[in-house]
Amino acid sequence: MRFMVMGMATKESEAAPPPKPEAFVAMQKYNEQAVKAGILLAAEGLGPTSKGARVKFNGDKRTVIDGPFAETKEVVAGFMIIKVNSLEEAIEWVKRAPNVNPNVEGEVEIRKLMDVEDFGEGFTPNPEIAKVKFK
Question: Helix (H, G, I), strand (E, B), or coil: what is residue 62?
């Protein structure tokens, strides 16, 4: 099973400079452990919402909203995609992660990525997309 692990932004992370070098080193060490264990498929940090945008869909209408966004509690600051056997295993990996900003309460969300099998037997994927299969 593949899971997306999302580090949620805080007011501090949106307004502050990037974490200190020692925090990057700790995260790099953690990521290396995940690579050696064969579970890490991707990991990236995201820039602040002040440099982003959202597109709202309402029927045929599209509305662009430039950042920054007022509610940081629902903004993703970075993510990992891991392949593990269960949600419980994903939780155990997340609990091992370093806290790159120990002076602020942080939160990480873990969600299972949908696989073709999750859509049931009647689902026929696009043949081009079906060629892409994560190992």
Answer: strand
State phi, psi for 123 to the nearest 5 degrees. -85, 130
Q: Do 9 and 76 meet the contact criterion of CB atoms below 8 Å apart?
A: yes
pLDDT tens string, the chain, 135 residues long: the values are 999 999 988 877 777 677 788 988 999 999 999 999 999 999 998 888 888 999 999 999 999 999 888 776 678 989 999 999 999 999 999 999 998 887 888 899 999 998 767 777 777 767 676 666 555
Identity of the amino acid at 65: I
CA angle 54, 41, 80 (to 5 degrees): 45
Instruction: Give the CB-side neighbour count of residue 4, counting CA atoms within 13 A.
Output: 11
